[in-house]
Structures are given as structure tokens and as C-alpha cells.
Amino acid sequence: MNTTADKPASKERETDALNGWFMVLMNGVLLIGAIVWFWLIVHQSSGGPGPVLAAPILIGLFALFLFKGYFTLQPNESRVLILFGAYKGTVRQSGFWWANPFYSQVRNQSGRPSGSAKISLRARNFNSEKLKVNDKRGNPIEIAAVIVWQVEDSARAAFDVDDFESYVHIQSESAVRHIASLYAYDRGDEQEPTLRESANEIGGALKKELLERLDKAGVLVQEARLTHLAYAPEIAQAMLRRQQAEAVIAARRTIVQGAVSMVDMALRELTEKSVVKLDDERKAAMVSNLLVVLCGESEATPVINTGTLYS
Q1: Residue 69 DSSP SS3
Q2: Are 77 and 119 in contact (CB under 8 A)?
Q3: Does the pLDDT value for residue 306 go beyond 60?
Q4: Of 19-23, 27-31, 183-187, 217-221, which gets the smallest average pLDDT?
Q5: Phi then psi dihedrals of residue 46, to 5 deg
Q6: What phi, psi does 196 have (nearest 5°)?
Q7: How far is 41 from 52, CA to CA, in rounded Å?
Q8: Torsion, CA 52, CA 53, CA 55, CA 58, rounded to 10
Q9: What b/e readout covers 73-85, taking b as 16+ CB neighbours within 10 angstroms?
């Protein structure tokens, strides 16, 4: 059974058109010749012009009709040639050209022209709106991206999708939503990329997905990257407090690890150099005092003991 998926994709065929300036000369000669012929018949016919006038009139009308075939192409612009519904090729070379006046415009499913048969091949930017989605952990976030794209195959853009610009916009937003759901905003598992910390990797994944989605429309994605990333307003304050708490915990952990290393170094140096011999109770007291000094938030006030070590 045939399905839409089984239908082969269109493929662009590059073709040439006739030089426009040459056709201007030819059309001019044809039109002037028809006018001169008409004048000669009218002024030289002794028995009246009669039906003979039909020939120069038809030739003149034909010459006027041929003037509809002129078109110009700028650099990075193409024109799709369609004759009575059949695709005849694409003109990509810039300049002034002439083609069959019966070549029609590209039409959408409603039967109305979807613009000129010309298609721009220039790079374009698409800035998505701020989309509200859930990340991998279910947290609501706001995300937006910029997509740099251009038409690579004009036949696919014209015939395989209804409106390729609208197709790019819808598929781009869909891809952004899908990518956002695959990654956590932050605090990913070990070695797991996150939306906030792995911008290059996320941009690469988004570009890859867009290339797969937009290939049907003959569109090439040159660049894709996130332009906005934030928690949704309803959880932003809670997440900010969590981030602050995590920062405090991380700082405390670093301070404690450093303090323990310094205490261990102090005790080892005192023992190896026989500066003083301490029993377990005095070692515990010394460790406690050093940790208080090293880990305390405020400056410690020293107390000088003028007695013995055990008093």
C-alpha cells in the first residue's frame, strides 16, 4: 500500500533560460514587423484590408504575450520553472532572463499562489519565541533559540511542503521543545551535559535534529544555539534559593577539606620534628581548636595559656 512516506522526494534539476536582452531584441523586431505589416496592408490594399489584417494582429498580440516571460535573478536567488503542473527545472544563475510565459507560480494546497516562483537561497535567521517546557527532571523552564538556515534544494522547498518558511518555523520550535526535554537545566548526573553548562553540545544536538526534520523541505541548517534559558517564573525564586544553598554547601565542603588537610599536616609536622608530645586527649583538643579557627566565619580571638599544658 502506498503511503505519504513512500513518496519519493523531489530533486532539484538546474536548467538554463534564454538571455533576456537577446529576447528583447527579437520581440521588438517581431512587434515592429507586425505593426509595419499592419500599416502596409491598411494603406496599400485596394480592395480593403479584409481578413488579411488578422495575421499581423495575431503576430503583434503574440509578441506582446512573449514580454511576460522576462524575469531577473539576483545573486543567491533561484526560480522554479513549472509548465502546466510539471517541474521543468530551476534557474540559479543571476541576471536578466527569458523563459516560457506559460511557466506558472508555485501554488499551495488552497490553490492560491504561495508567492513568486522565485526562491531566495540566502542565509536567514529564525528567532524562536520564549517557549515554556519541562526539562528532563520535570522542572518548568523558558527556552529560546536562534536558527540560521537557507534553502539548499529549491524543488523540495517548492513541492514537498506546503509553505517551507512556515514549515521551518514550526519544526524549529518543535525541535527546541524536544531537545529541552532531553536534558536537565542543571545538576545533571556525572558526565551528563546540561542545558546551562553545555551550550556547545546542546547546540550541536539541536542542529542535528533540525537537519533531520528540515531535510524534507530542502533546507540546510548552518547554525543553531540557545539565546534564552531560565527557570519559569513560578519556580525561579525556589530554584535560586536552592542554587544559593548548593553554593554554600560546596564552599563549606572545600573549606572543611582544606582545614582537615592543614590539621593533619600540623600534627604530622609536630610529631616528626618532636616539637611536642601530645596524648590523644590533647590532640583532640588541638584538632578542635584548629578546625574552629580554620572553619569559622568570624576571626578567632586567641587565648594565651600561661600555665602548663594540662592546666
Answers
A1: helix
A2: yes
A3: no
A4: 183-187
A5: -80, -30
A6: -80, -35
A7: 8
A8: -150
A9: beeebbbbbbeee
C-alpha cell at 4: 505519504
Q: Quote the cell numbers at residue 73.
A: 535573478
Q: If you search the block for the grid coordinates 523541505, which residue do you land on? A: 217
Residues 30, 35, 39, CA angle at the centre, nearest 5°?
Answer: 145
Residue with cell string 531577473: 72
| DSSP H helical ranges for the chain | 20-44, 54-66, 154-159, 164-182, 199-214, 233-272, 280-295
Q: What is the mean pLDDT of the chain?
A: 81
Residues 6+ apart with CB under 8 A from 50: none
CB atoms inside a 10 Å sphere around CB 26: 14
| Distance of alpha carbon 147 from alpha carbon 142, whole angstroms | 17
pTM (2 d.p.): 0.69
- Residue 115 CB-density burial (10 A; 0-12 exposed, 13-18 middle, 19+ buried): middle
Alpha-carbon dihedral of residues 261, 266, 269, 275, nearest 10 degrees? -170
Express each pLDDT in 131-147 by its tens digit.
Answer: 999 888 888 889 999 99
User: What does the pLDDT average to over 92-97?
Assistant: 92
Q: Which residue has the cell 528583447?
A: 24
